[in-house]
Amino acid sequence: MRGDSILHPTPAGLYCPPGGFYVDPMTPVDRALITHGHGDHARAGHGSVLATRETLDIMAIRYGADFAGATQAAEGPVRIGAVTVRFHPAGHILGSAQIEIIPDRGPTIVISGDYCRTPNPVCAAWEPVPCEIFVTEATFGLPVFHHPDPMTEVGRLLSSMAEFPERPHVIGAYALGKAQRLIALARQAGHDAPIAIHGALEKLCAYHVQQGVPLGSLIPATADSVPAQLMIAPPGSFESPWIQRFRDPVIGFASGWMQIRARARQRGVELPLMISDHVDWPQLTQTITELSPSEVWITHGAEEGLLRWCELTGVSARPLRLVGYEDDPE
């Protein structure tokens, strides 16, 4: 059986005919397998959802307890139709997973979802999963993208706070994953003072703490006078009246996209922090080299750049050209 008989793109997303399920579908379907809880991968309204326990919890927090008709936590191998699936850590955010599809006949396929090989204190580390077909993201699929050590970037944040102690530092970070990672990295770097968080982060931060992720003292960034120099907020809050309560703030943004100076200028960012939850170009090509799959399928991101690299290195590759996935919140 050919790979595209086991998995192929449709308008709703990647579909597995022998299993009768979709992976990260973009519209409501009867049966969905979800790689992680970000809104461009995890949507409400499916008949049934199979995901890690943490992803199911996160979807319930974000969409309500009835976000799907039925749910099942992925624990060990799960038999679905004529395939067996296994979930493996992706290192992207809490609960993120790669999905391994093992058909009764044909090649084993691994869908990486969004993945990161740089150690992340808020989630399980990425695991290499041998396969014949590797479906990879290409969010930062161009040679220009080399992400620095996250602790170096957090060091820049703490140095700025020491240099400008009278100025509040308000850092934009995606509400799920990036915000908690930034807080955990700041704690690892020795910042023990309370950190103020926007109300949109409270439930997700509390869930991380429940799961054993140490975030230290967190206080709400709601009062006109917040007794904390460091504040974390979703990027959208910078366009709301909320930001106006802070006098002369240092505006920062934590994202792999901050390597592109034009994006930082566009957002009015004074302190760009290049902290990414995705693989950069060296890690992307390293992963393909180490896994050495028979085929690479490339999705959401700079497909053409990675496709060209595969051609030059003799790796059989094809772009899936899926639409509907965001690359900006990161």
Automatic annotation (TrEMBL):
Example GO molecular function: exonuclease activity
InterPro entries found in the cross-reference section: MBL, RibonucZ/Hydroxyglut_hydro, Xnuc_lig_assoc
EC number: 3.1.-.-
Domain of life where this protein originates: Bacteria
Keywords from the named record: Exonuclease, Hydrolase, Ligase, Nuclease
PANTHER family per the UniProt record, alphabetical: BLL1145 PROTEIN (PTHR11203:SF49), CLEAVAGE AND POLYADENYLATION SPECIFICITY FACTOR FAMILY MEMBER (PTHR11203)
Name assigned to this protein: Ligase-associated DNA damage response exonuclease
Taxonomic source organism: Paracoccus pacificus
